[in-house]
């Protein structure tokens, strides 16, 4: 597992396929809190989403690469109160 201390604010979160999934707001426990700007549309718009640290494959340069492709990774996003 990746060291959570390697994940920094404003890093880009990408899927295994290189597709943009979000931007790190900060690490909260065992989850990455994404910025509201990457919150999606409709009922998902305007609030934070989270990605489990368990989905992180590696931290490279200024990017957090997930083990799942971008279109699959967004299905694993959690709402704020899903802790």
Give your account of this protein's structure.
- The chain is mostly beta strands.
- It has a domain at 1-58.
- Helix content is 5%, strand content 37%.
- It is built from one helix and seven strands.
- It has one helix spanning 70-73; strands at residues 12-14, 20-28, 31-34, 49-52, 56-60, 63-66, 78-79.
- The chain has a seven-stranded mixed beta sheet.
- Strand 2 (20-28) and strand 3 (31-34) form a beta hairpin.
- The longest helix has 4 residues, at 70-73.
- It is globular and about 30 Å long.
- It starts with 11 loop residues before the first strand and ends with a strand.
- It comes from Sphingosinicella rhizophila.
- This is DUF2171 domain-containing protein.
Mean pLDDT: 86
The major β-sheet equals:
7 strands, mixed
Q: Could you tell me how far the N terminus lies from the C terminus, measured between alpha carbons in angstroms?
A: 19 Å
Tally of DSSP β-strands: 7
Strand order of the main beta sheet, please?
Answer: 5-6-1-2-3-4-7
Low-confidence stretches: none
Q: Which class of secondary structure composition applies to the elements?
A: mainly beta
Strand content: 35-45%
């Amino acid at each position: 597992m990746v060291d959570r201390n390697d994940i920094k604010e404003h890093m880009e979160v990408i899927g295994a396929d290189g597709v943009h999934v979000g931007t790190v707001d900060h690490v909260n426990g065992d989850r990455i809190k994404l910025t509201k700007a990457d919150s999606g549309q409709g009922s998902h718009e305007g609030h934070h989403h989270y990605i489990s640290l368990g989905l992180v494959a590696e931290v490279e340069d200024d990017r957090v690469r997930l083990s799942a492709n971008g279109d699959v990774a967004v299905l694993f996003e959690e709402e704020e109160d899903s802790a």
